[in-house]
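Cont'd.
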Amino acid sequence: MSLLLILIPLLTALFLLIARPAGARTIALVASLANLAVTAFASMGFVGDGSFNHEFSIPWVAEAGINFRLGMDGISLLMIVLTNLLAPLIIFSSFNRQMEPEGRYYGLVVLMLAALNGVFLALDGLVFYIFYELALIPIYFICAIWGGQDRIRTTLKFFIYTFIGSLFMLVALLYVYLQTPGTHSFAWEELVRVQLDTNAAWWVLLGFFLAFAVKMPVFPFHTWQPDTYTTAPTGGTMLLSGIMLKMGVYGVIRWMIPLAPEAIHCLMPTFMVLAVIGIIYGSIIAIKQNDFKRLIAYSSIAHVGLIAAGVMAWNKAGVQGGLIQMLNHGINVVGLFFAADMIERRMGTRSLSEMGGIAKSAPKFAALFMIVVLGSVAVPLTNGFPGEFLLLNGVWNYNFWLGAVAGLTIIFGAVYMLRAYGLTMFGEANEQTARFEDVKTNEWIVLGVIAALVLILGFFPGMVLNLTDGSVNRILGAVQF
Amino acid sequence: MDSLIPLIPFLPFLGFVINGLFGKKLPKSVVGMIGSGVLLVSFLLSVMCFNEVGTGGAIRVQLYNFFTVDGLQADFGFLVDHLSVWMMLIVTGIGFLIHVYSIGYMHNDDGFWKFFAYLNLFIFSMLLLIMGNNFLMLFFGWEGVGLCSYLLIGFWYTNKEYGKAARKAFIMNRIGDLGLLLGMFMIFKMFGSLNYEDIFGSLASVRLDPTVITTICILLFIGAMGKSAQIPLYTWLPDAMAGPTPVSALIHAATMVTAGIYLVARCNPLYSLSPDAMHFVAAVGLATCIFAAIIGLRQNDIKKVLAYSTVSQLGLMFVALGMGAYASAMFHVTTHAFFKALLFLAAGSVIHGMGGEQDIRNMGGLRKAMPITFWVFLIGTFAISGFPFLSGFFSKDEIFAFTYAHGGKVWWGLAGFGAMLTAIYMCRLLYLTFFGEFRGTSEQEHHLHESPATMTVPLAILAGLSLAGGFLNTPHFLHLGNEQWLAHWFSWVIPIQEVHLGEATEWKLMTFTTTLAVIIIIVSYFIYTKKSSVPVPDAQQSGLTRLIANKFYVDEIYDFLFVRPIEKISRLFHYYVDVQGIDGIVNGVGTGVQKLGAGFRKLQNGNIEYYLIGMVAGVVLLLLSLFL
């Protein structure tokens, strides 16, 4: 089962890139839907006690303790759900733009899907690392080929930034690997079992942190992100913000903290403060942005900062909140970028000052977009709320004042999101917005699915939190410090 | 009965869904019928609950578990007890009247269906707020009503200013919400639960640090300050008048803004443990009560006067809460809901008749053209001013008695001063609007008409309630019968508080304030009607009048202190810290790397397909190598 999740998109990617068949978009969509079906199948009869389900393992380099080993506990399953739920939406939303040559674009997207699934399924350190790096390559090309203005410089920066981060992780990973007994092993359990002295753990923790901090991104490692989100084609931005940045958060939960808990007391306060700075910093900058996509990019820094802070607080509320919020942030941010793209396609601009009054000419769009915005502002009974509540509670449990400062996000979040909504939708229509065309059928499908998810997950967050409950208990219990 | 209770909030929700999805295609009469019909049913169900609670005590209904994390059991459950059922009656009852009124008031609006959808959504949220059995449910409703308030203030969204007012309301509320949220975190940490009955039930057995209790109470109160528009978070409420008038009546006078009072009354076991927090509540309330009343003296927009009056009255309710007179505060919530909803709706009728005019300087003499509106407005004015035996007379008098007994002469004097100001600005409003000569354009004079029955009938009912509502809770010393009925009704949730003053003192206090109110009513009649002194145009205002008319420039001060600095910091962060600072360093490193990479460029032929295929094939080979 686990292997299928990687093989289906991988082989599809190969086929699309080599054969360049006609109708590549349909093939990619079908492949992603097949993956969604496999995900649904995998989550039926899932045992949520924290053990690994659907394990698949074959020796790779047996002498060196390297196995190609996949499996999923609740945490992985949630990430798999996130990835394979969003993938069809992202692919389908790309239908609205001509991405030429199609075979290449959609091939890269499904290749990305394979790599992401690999990252979340890997139970072997080296396999994790390989997939982690592999995911970078297709997104690099997607941004570099189909991106907007200044794409080469921006994308190169993004690539180098994240690549260097990953190298630190590789060194840290190898170091822990060499501490495993006997002929060494990359198996997750073996790596977790290693006891490091505080000094070594300090370096290991830092190495992992650099990799994940760049990916998420955490302040001050974020400067690749606004440029990249803005110049990348919307499909690429959705992949990055919806799914890929969660690789970093997932990495913190699965690898960073379990592998080097010995140094948590030394470094975690710094990491927490950086994450909380990111919340405020991203929010404040978002307030005055005029480029809609850039505004969402900065808001994403704020949201992810909160997720990072909650997860690193390493208590039940924080980690559970982080997990559910990864799913919901993914859904919401894809919705927001989709709305931004809709506006850009119709108006040829992302500049908020040129908009206004769209609600009058496109009421359906206004309503659906409003639901997504509410989710993003974390109004109760939308999907954004339970995560934000638990995350803030987690950070607050870690430290009262840090929690209070992080809590400012509920105010700033309302400020910048409602400003963006007001500037686009409300006010008098201008010449261009008066002719704004309401949602077309396939746009309706994407936004409708997202809006439905916002409300369903808002009313019933228990479904998601129960999925990960056992695994979070297990991983929190396994890591003592 | 128990299984019907979820229907009370979910029927309005259903109304929202139906009107929201299909309302555009339905005729207006159907939309209005659905919108107010669901409320009527909810109201009748609430009445049934009221009977059941009266005989059998609180009803508890558990719907489903929202989530459970780390012992935090967040349930979607209802607690219908003496306090919540009373609020349910107010919200659904007055809500229904206002829905009916809106059918007439909004009949020409294109967004008729949307208006009813939002109103229903508001009622749903408000009912969650008061019916929930735990703080999280309260928070759902709390933020939900904030959202509806946002949607309805900005209802006429093509007007940019209205949109700004809506945003301001939401954001200021969110500032308060943060306090409430932190208070909830602290409660959960101390009590291990967010459920009211668990928390208040354990107070007797658990010994708690008084500073912790005080902190919790103050954090919760910060939430109340936002929602109930207290200093320093009150400035959104006057701006909220941008919304259609029924919204001002329902949300920004009768129901939503009293949520803060409900919160403190609900948490009365906690507040009673913290004298410091009580003092704080009373002080903020008193300051707001007087400050807003002063501003109200020099406003010339009919709705703005009423808005500041609401802020001021809410302040008075907080004074009551701070004095430990929780039941009196709830009593005043009730009478205030009657007469303030009445006043707003009557003001709406005036605006309707005047064709959109809101400046009282352009009105005058309306009593001839709009007799019903005039009479109900007069009743409302007299009720709020404390005219003998009208509703406000009883509820305000009770608060003054408690203030005198628990706070002493100074507190009583200041609260009385606030009440005096209330009578002054309300009479000024009444006389300038309905007496004297008409001062508007001849076109307006021609347009003047009494409102249709859908509007005047709800007005008449509310007028009846404003007249008689005070008899719900009469003081002992007047021997009117039905003494302290409401206080006894609440006694299941709020312990009975006695005013230990003695009949003679109570008589003296009441005579004093009542005489004052009557004198003001008479004197201001002579000033505004006989001498017909009309407020000067804005440009001619000077000195103190100008200062008050401009609301002491508080908005401008906030703008200068908070809004503009944050916007400035936003730009500074973006340009100097982000683009120039951090990214500058990164680019410096990047340039170096690029130069290094230039050497490798010669190895590349530029055809991306080759790289890609090579890469994917490589991965496949790697995987294949596993199986071989």
